[in-house]
Design goal:
Structural class: alpha+beta
Largest sheet: 4 strands, antiparallel
Radius of gyration: 23 Å
Distance between the termini: 25 Å
Strand order of the largest sheet: 5-4-3-6
Number of helices: 17
Number of strands: 6
Shape: elongated
Low-confidence stretches: 1-37
Strand content: 5-15%
Helix content: 55-70%
């Protein structure tokens, strides 16, 4: 089958952009930001200010974030500095920030305003990353032992001090979730590199990875890659940084480099289905169908509910002439997502290629 025919089947690509983690040791109580330079807030704002201009087209008042963080820290300081009761500290942050100041949760990761800190402060709204950065900036200012934590496509903060460990879940109004609940909600077996408390440097890497994804959504792939490179240096254990870089490289047609990034992500997290999915597409495009099918099969085993992954497996089968197997997988994919035009088109094309013209008719 020639490459043009193969391309007709390779139409389902998973372009998800997620984040990453790495292991960290038991965290010490943080010292106030004034004891070191640059502070966590300074580092975040330096990148956030540029992101606000580039992604939102908004002018940034350079004095606003510092004024607001100072004001909020002054509100919190009498209740939390010197406190030994971790539950009391977590409760004070929740009451002051989420109730009285009315910071609200918005799950959208596609809106940069939800994670660029200036915008979060002005709009009183942020996604999991934006609200985590708010908590961490204030914790840094006040010397409170909050740490960032990452799970695939989501993050939160964790209080760790004086033997107390409390997770703060912004999607549920600051409620405390156990680690076991995160493992259940995000399907995380213990071997996957998530749910670890991150250093400030690693959380800056998570932010830069997310900011890079924002540039990628605007088609600014070279700038995205520069941010991913910085994120990878700050957070070398993050599989998601390498995955996101692979997506940008694939969009730019730098396919060998993209494959290398996907393989690096899989070295760090062998159960990252999205990386196996996209790698299978690259392998099929090179005519390496046995390898492509193996990667696609493993992606489907990891996420059997994912119609796009099944579509990619079907495309790989069809691309090398294994039409019956491809039709079988397309039919399963259409059962999962009956409204997908791309899956239905792939199934119809497979039927036509097999000569089953009647079955190909809608």
């Amino acid at each position: 089958m020639n490459r043009r025919s193969v391309a007709a089947f390779l139409g389902v690509v998973l372009w998800s952009c997620v984040g990453g983690v790495s292991a960290a040791g038991t965290p010490p109580v943080l010292s106030p930001a004034s004891a070191r330079e640059p502070s966590f807030l300074t580092a975040i704002l330096r990148h956030s200010t540029r992101g606000s201009r580039d992604l939102l087209g908004l002018p940034v008042d350079p004095t606003l974030p510092e004024r607001e963080i100072t004001r909020l820290a002054d509100r919190l300081r009498p209740e939390v500095v010197g406190a030994t009761d971790g539950d009391h500290v977590v409760g004070a942050f929740r009451r002051v920030l989420l109730v009285e100041e009315r910071f609200t949760y918005d799950k959208s990761s596609a809106d940069p305003g939800n994670y660029l800190l200036e915008s979060v402060l002005v709009r009183r709204k942020g996604n999991c990353l934006g609200l985590s950065l708010l908590y961490l900036a204030l914790a840094d200012r006040l010397g409170i032992p909050f740490r960032g934590v990452y799970v695939p496509s989501h993050c939160f903060v964790r209080y760790e001090g004086n033997g107390v460990r409390v997770n703060v879940e912004f999607a549920e109004g600051g409620a405390s979730w156990s680690d076991d609940r995160y493992r259940q909600e995000f399907r995380l077996p213990p071997a996957r590199p998530y749910l670890q408390s991150l250093s400030q440097t690693e959380m800056l890497g998570v932010f830069l990875k997310t900011l890079g994804a924002g540039y990628s959504r605007k088609g600014r792939e070279e700038e995205a890659l520069r941010l991913y490179d910085q994120a990878g240096r700050l957070y070398p254990g993050s599989p998601d940084v390498h995955y996101n870089a692979g997506v940008s490289l694939q969009k730019l047609g730098r396919l060998d480099e993209a494959a290398a990034k996907y393989r690096r992500a899989l070295d760090l997290d062998p159960e990252m289905a999205a990386a196996r999915d996209n790698l299978s597409i690259l392998l099929a495009g090179e005519g390496r169908y046995d390898e492509a099918i193996e990667e696609a099969r493993r992606a489907v085993e990891l996420e059997p509910w994912n119609a796009a992954s099944r579509g990619n497996l079907a495309a790989a089968y069809c691309g090398c002439g294994r039409l019956d197997e491809g039709i079988r997988e397309y039919r399963k994919a259409v059962e999962i997502d009956p409204g997908s035009r791309r899956l239905r088109s792939g199934l119809e094309h497979a039927y036509f290629s097999r000569g089953s013209h009647r079955e190909a008719l809608p």
